[in-house]
Amino acid sequence: MPAMKPGAVSSPSPSFQPLYQQIKELLTQSLQHGEWHPGETIPSEIDLAARFQVSQGTVRKAIDELAAENILVRRQGKGTFVATHTEETASIFRFLRIRRCDGREEMPESRLLEVRRGKATAEVARALQMKPGEAVVVLIRVLDYSGEPIIYDEITLPSVLFKGLTKAKIDDYLGSMYSLFETQFGVRMIRADERLRAIAADAEVARELRVAPGTPLLSVERIAFTYGDRPVELRRGLCTTRQHCYVNQLS
Amino acid sequence: MPAMKPGAVSSPSPSFQPLYQQIKELLTQSLQHGEWHPGETIPSEIDLAARFQVSQGTVRKAIDELAAENILVRRQGKGTFVATHTEETASIFRFLRIRRCDGREEMPESRLLEVRRGKATAEVARALQMKPGEAVVVLIRVLDYSGEPIIYDEITLPSVLFKGLTKAKIDDYLGSMYSLFETQFGVRMIRADERLRAIAADAEVARELRVAPGTPLLSVERIAFTYGDRPVELRRGLCTTRQHCYVNQLS
DNA sequence: CAGTGGTCTAGACCACATC
DNA sequence: ATGTGGTCTAGACCACTGG
Known about the structure:
2 copies of one chain form a homodimer.
Chain A: H1 19-32, E1 41-42, H2 45-52, H3 56-68, E2 72-75, E3 79-82, H4 89-92, E4 98-100, E5 109-119, H5 122-128, E6 135-145, E7 148-158, H6 167-172, H7 177-185, E8 191-200, H8 203-209, E9 216-226, E10 230-239, E11 244-250
Antiparallel strand pairs in A: 1-3, 2-3, 4-11, 5-6, 6-7, 7-10, 8-9, 9-10
Helix pairs in contact in A: 1-3, 2-3
Chain A binds a DNA duplex (19 and 19 nucleotides) through helix 3.
């Protein structure tokens, strides 16, 4: 069960994989299988080194990479924690890139309009790697910044993973959507791909965002992934950008 | 001249800085002062370790961070190179996030419309950390994807850093804008902040992009920085997003 | 104080590129 | 064969946290 050491490979170097990558894989599997839950600490580097029969430095390098991917969080003196969408604001803003233009940090309020059940269209099925016609849940909501409606959000989820998701359940929950998914359904969002466009507001959206139909809106399409690059959420946000904007860092 | 080792600090831990951070700082300064140029190799880890009187592992960690920031590029067996905006497509797409929606990778062609000299407005001065009224150069260009005009770009630069920038000089140059800045003016873009909005096309832009006035466009404002977080470029791109979009990865 | 992660070292060996 | 970066180890010590 322990990772095969590179030296043990007989042939010189066909598909060589470093030890720390193998450890990283094992850690990811433990996370995926729920051995440690979001917010909890994982065993110390020394313990993990003993478990996997490698040096502490090798475990360290594996954890370093997972920390760089925001899957684990290191805290000196305390331990290494499983990242969570719950808790403090810093981690919330990881997936929320819409800010006030003036730079003031402000958390939006979510207002759920509707929960609808339906079947995956061809497009949805492709994005979420489902079969066309499979059951999906669609959430429609509006995000208010300082009481003003700014984002019209449509969130599509595979029903299989979100059984028992109801409007009441969401309304009762305090915290972000991803926090809810994580705590109530065990679905943890690890990364996401986004595509941005400018579009004109249609009548329905214009009414909710209290703008004129035809107003340019920022369209943010997102596919969010859980462990193993499995897509588990399709989202389209339409955002008024008079006082707000989408921020991004290139490096 | 060598980095002060942490142990040498007398008091216990007021403002403790790890050795590898100090090495990183020294490497950054060498880059900034032009000791090594984009595309060139820097000395080997062993040589640098000898120069700074630290172990190879410490140099390694410093270089690792600079590589993670895309300032250096490691190539096993060959050496460590100063990152450049010239050369292959991979590094070009680091700062170019507008793609065809269908996923086909395609490089745009730049068509320079105008080079204008002027003075920094209050807003520009703030963004570029200049004094209002200081001289700036403004470039107006259009980017064509497959011959279709897609992006209307307005690029504002401090004249001090780009003396002798003329339309002819740009038209003659083959390669990206940042490649030109790097090779002709020694200004290297390290990172950038972007803000995205949706706006309506005005008459001027609509004509260049061959869309109806009022068409929603994606506005991408960018402030690009060189070493030491010095802002050296302000850019606003207006993009037609009928067949193109801005892609982003969250993690 | 003990336990955690963080730094630094020195040395061995591997993979890759080049001559 | 040589030199480069990449991996792995073992051990020492430092910084931070909490009992």
